[in-house]
Amino acid sequence: MHEGLSGPVPLSPAPVGSDCLDLPIAELAARLRDGRLTSVALTRATLDRIAVRDKTYLSFYAVLEEAALADAARADEDLAAGLDRGPLHGIPVGIKDLIDVAGVPTTANTPGRAKTVAAQDAELVRRLRTGGAIIIGKLATYEWATVGPDKSGLFPPAKNPWRLDHITGGSSSGCAAAVAGGLVRTSIGTDTGGSVRGPSFYCGTVGLKPTFGLVPTSGVLDLAPSLDHVGPISASVAEAAITLDVLSGRNGEGRAASRLGEPVSGLRIGYARNWFAHDSQTMPAVTAALDAAVSVLSAQGAVVSEVEMPDHATIEVAVAAILHAESFKLHAKALREHAESYGRRAFLSLAAGLSLSETEVEKARAIGASFRRDVDELLGYHDVLITAGALTTALPAAPFEEEAVWTPMRTIGFNVSGHPVLAVPVGFHDGLPIGMQIIGRHYAEARIAQFGHAFEQATDFSVQRPLPP
């Protein structure tokens, strides 16, 4: 029984409307346990909202209605019997379609996997089910988590709920669209170069890339194994933290949610302003929003000092080389023998690693190791580092329909360094969200969540949502 959340569940709770879907998971959990809500009712409301809104957002590839309702009924029976599986018990969760869900195709949005049905759940999905979560469906991704949005994939690209003709960011596009659009409170994405954080910056959600290796990747399609991470995209910091705790299986002080609500007074922030403030690509509104966000934390007593991060261009080039080399190695045989199994853009992206020599890749890995040491050194003097995530708000989607377009972000270095990073919305420009990154020491997810939650409590950016379609 999960401590502090148990309680009787009556057989006939009052009917609920779709308004319950906009409540935080903690409030939904309380209602599930005191009888004001059932998981079946919550799941039905979720399915109904998906049926209406996702005609516009296109965030789901597959909606698992029958299985979700059956799982919800079991969740209600467990609570009625006094078996409380934890903070996600009875809560619908969406899964990026790079992650195996037993009996459902894991398509990666690529022609060659249209009918590739998973034989068993990924380990992280097993943990979600053990924790009582309801797997509601599979969410959109760029093909093989490479480039997009691309209309030539198996499925059309997900839409940004804030502005439908702008990108969601990739490749966990469906996760961010579903959360921003109010379809689910939390979802599971992957991040090899920023794919949990980028969509969060662009869609105004919270993304949490954990320490490398904290969440198991068995049953998750690889892109670049030394860079691949799995983490939540959620509606708030608290919801991201409790989701990560279920995925990681951590307990006690190690939990990401263990410091939520604690003050940040006296804690030290290293503000890496040099990574974005003087870059010609950076929107002035992004710099202003980041400066204001750090000021909010300073006003709460955090001690802020500017720090100099290593040259971002050098690390970005190096990590891109590692990513291309590792992804090409995984796909080389299929690219040669079954080119028709790939869309054109994904094929070109994955084939880019062909031109890299082993010497170049080893040099890139050395640069990555040096970057990790540099970040560790900065975190020896500071509790967290803060910098920009994306240098612009979400870009118009039209140019992406013609060719791959580079989106300026400051994310990929932390994939090679393995540090945990929290993406938090900090403002808006012309109706589109802006986000920041909070970087912590390895396995210090609780600390970055503490800072993110403190910022959320002092502002209203994370509770703002776009008008429904």
Automatic annotation (TrEMBL):
The organism's place on the tree of life at top rank: Bacteria
Annotated ranges, domain Amidase: 42-448
GO molecular function, one term: catalytic activity
Primary role: Hydrolyzes indole-3-acetamide (IAM) into indole-3-acetic acid (IAA).
Protein name, UniProt field: Indoleacetamide hydrolase
